[in-house]
Structures are given as C-alpha cells and as structure tokens.
Design a protein that fits this description.
The chain is of the alpha/beta class and 324 residues long. It has two domains: 155 residues, Medium-chain alcohol dehydrogenases, catalytic domain (Quinone Oxidoreductase, Chain A, domain 1, Alpha-Beta Complex), CATH 3.90.180; 141 residues, Rossmann fold (3-Layer(aba) Sandwich), CATH 3.40.50.720. Helices cover 29% and strands 26% of the residues. The longest helix has 16 residues. It binds NADP nicotinamide-adenine-dinucleotide phosphate (NAP).
Length: 324
C-alpha cells in the first residue's frame, strides 16, 4: 500500500510518500481502508522532533481518518465490513493514518454519520475530542455561561464553538481574518473579535455587561494568558489547549477573582472520559454539529499540508488529505 513514512525528524521534506507493508490485523482490531486523513498541528511538532513523546523511527504520522472497514478481528463486535467509519487513535505514534490502510483497536473507531463525507469524517477525531474534553471535562461549562473561544477558526475552535452553542452557552469567538470572523458568525457565535487587532478584547466588558467571561478555551496561551485573566468573571475557568512559548502573568488576578487555570492534553484523557466524550460527540454530530474542512490536499502532498497547518494563515477549519 502507499503511505507517508518519516525516517528522520526534520522539516516537512522528511514526509516521504512510499510503498509500504500493510498493517497486521489483531484479534481486537479493525482494518480500515482510509479515504481521508486529518492534519493536526501536533503532527508537525512530532515530525520536527520537537515534542516530549517521540515515536521510534521510521513511523507513519496521523491519528485521525475516515474510510471503510475492510477486515474485522475475531473478537470485535458491532461493526461490519464495508461500513463507513472515522477513527481517532489519539496517539499519533506507530501505524498512522497518513496511509491507505490503518489497523487500530475497536475503541478508536466510530460510525460516520451518513450525510458526512470522508473528508469531514477525517476532521472530527482529535479536534472533536479536544473540544469536548476542554469544554465539558475541564471547564465543566453550564448552560447560560459566557464562553470565550480564543482561536475559534481552526480545527478545534470551530468545533468547540458549535459544541458550546449546542449546550446553551453565549459564545464570543476570535479569528485572525475577516473570512474567519464571517465563518464564526455563520457557525453561531454571538460575538466575534479579531485577535490580530490591537485592543480587540476592550469590548468584552460591554459584551458581558461588566461581568467578564466564565470560561476561556485558549488556543495560544503564550500570547493570551495575561489578557484572559483580565477579562475573566469571578470564579472563571481558563482551559489551556494550545501553547507555543513562554509568558509572564500576574497571578494576583487569579487570586482576586478565584480563577482556575487548567491545562489539558488529549493523550491524558482517561478511558472513562474518552467513552463519555465519544457519546457527547456522537450526539452532537447527530444534532447538526459539523466539522469544517478548509482545504484538501492529496496524500502525496502531505508536505504542503504540514507547511500550511503551522503557518499563521487566517484559518477556516481543518486541513485534510484525500487518499486514493
Ligand atoms: P489550527 O487548526 O491550526 O488552528 C489554530 C487556531 O489558533 C486558529 O483558530 C488561529 O486563528 C488561532 N490563533 C492564531 N493566533 C492566535 C492568537 N493570537 N490568539 C488566539 N488564537 C490564535 O489548530 P487546532 O487543531 O485548532 O489546534 C489549536 C492549538 O491547540 C494548536 O496549538 C494545537 O497544537 C493545540 N492542540 C492541543 C491539544 C491538546 O491536547 N492540548 C489537542 C489539539 C490541539 P487564525 O488562523 O484565524 O489567526
């Protein structure tokens, strides 16, 4: 089969499109013939060798994908050959989804709603689980609360926005381009702000009637954490999803307002949380929540997709590879 192999860590040129052996099916596994795979920023950190947990070389990147079941392990129930599914292996190590086929355990495979394309299915996994883990397991959002999604135009944020609206929150969402802001309004944001404009958070006091925001889902903490503390309501919760550097903050604000700052890492999700999140995600997908696909490349063009996902691009959802 064809797939992407990384034999040494480095820039995007180490993503080689090669002929490789098919993965071997275990008794508790499914073999999926993938039609699309989703690109996550973490796959660029791992590929460059700049990440805490690195796979042994050579490896095939990718943890998200969608396709059709080709083989079923003898202990697996509830799935049939030919069914459309999406996968989220959540590790990004070993056998990856940047390939024509993947073998993964039954706990990483989910039925793909009929009306969704394979490209949309490939955009669900890591982004959807991250958005739900941040909103529900970490921030424990309540209906009626005000949620600031700081960086809502990307893969995680565009799903977090829809999920927060679904559970009755008032959502203030940020993007870095006019097109991004328009997309966020179309997805249901109550207010939008451009995080590339100076003083863009100034209006938040007015937008929250002087109260501040109850929850921040933060995609770039090294830029925004101090500003987040400034705009929080009393007993607000900040969930750090994304961070790419250092920042100095004044913890006094966290004391005065009794703010909780929580980090999250998808790989730390417990099996119990994963199960709960899968139910929530499934319910959301059947109630109109939709992954947003920004751009589609072919599997052989993985290098271009890696270059695009990491640059300040004015995001409009998720970058996906189609697989022949
Ligand atoms: P993505 O699709 O590349 O989106 C990046 C988002 O960050 C875009 O909405 C972008 O907005 C926004 N952004 C850029 N500058 C910003 C700023 N100054 N303030 C606020 N937002 C800003 O990436 P993603 O998949 O959504 O992931 C978002 C981040 O979370 C990444 O850093 C990723 O590594 C991390 N992540 C962490 C976990 C975890 O387990 N903790 C899981 C998944 C993702 P514009 O492009 O419109 O400017």
């Amino acid at each position: 089969m064809k797939g992407i192999q990384v034999s040494s860590f480095g820039e995007s040129h180490v993503l080689n499109y090669v002929e490789m052996d098919e993965p071997v099916l275990g008794d508790n596994d499914l073999c999926i013939r993938l039609k699309a795979t989703g690109i996550n920023p973490v796959e660029t950190y791992i590929r460059s060798g700049n990440y805490a947990a690195l796979p042994s070389l050579p490896y095939t990147p990718g943890s998200d994908g969608a396709g059709v079941i080709e083989k079923i392990g003898k202990n697996v129930q509830g799935f049939h050959i030919g069914e459309r599914v999406y996968v989220s292996t959540l590790t990004g190590h070993g056998t990856g989804t940047y390939a024509q086929k993947i073998v993964c355990d039954v706990g990483s495979v989910y039925h793909l709603p009929e009306e969704m394309s394979f490209e949309e299915g490939a955009a669900i996994g890591s982004s959807g689980f991250t958005a739900i883990q941040a909103l529900h397991q970490k921030a424990r959002i309540q209906p009626g609360e005000i949620v600031l999604i700081h960086g809502a135009s990307g893969g995680v944020g565009s799903l977090a926005l829809q999920l927060a609206k679904l559970c009755g929150s008032k959502v203030i969402a940020t993007a870095g381009s006019e097109q991004g802001l328009a997309m966020l309004l179309a997805l249901g944001a109550d207010h939008v702000l451009n995080h590339r404009e100076p003083d863009y958070l100034q209006n938040l006091s007015f937008l929250t009637e002087g109260k501040g925001v109850d929850v921040v889902i933060e995609m770039l903490a090294n830029r925004n954490l101090q500003n987040d503390l400034d705009v929080m309501a009393k007993e607000g919760r900040i969930v750090i999803v994304g961070n790419r550097g250092d920042i100095e903050i004044n913890p006094r604000l966290a004391m005065n307002k009794e703010i909780q700052i929580t980090g999250m890492l998808l790989a730390n999700m417990t099996p119990e949380q994963k199960g709960q999140n899968a139910h929530r995600l499934n319910a959301a997908l059947t109630h109109g929540v939709k992954p947003i696909v920004e751009q589609i490349f072919s599997l052989a063009e993985a290098k271009l997709a890696h270059e695009m996902v990491i640059k300040q691009r004015g995001s409009l959802g998720k970058i996906v590879l189609t697989i022949d």
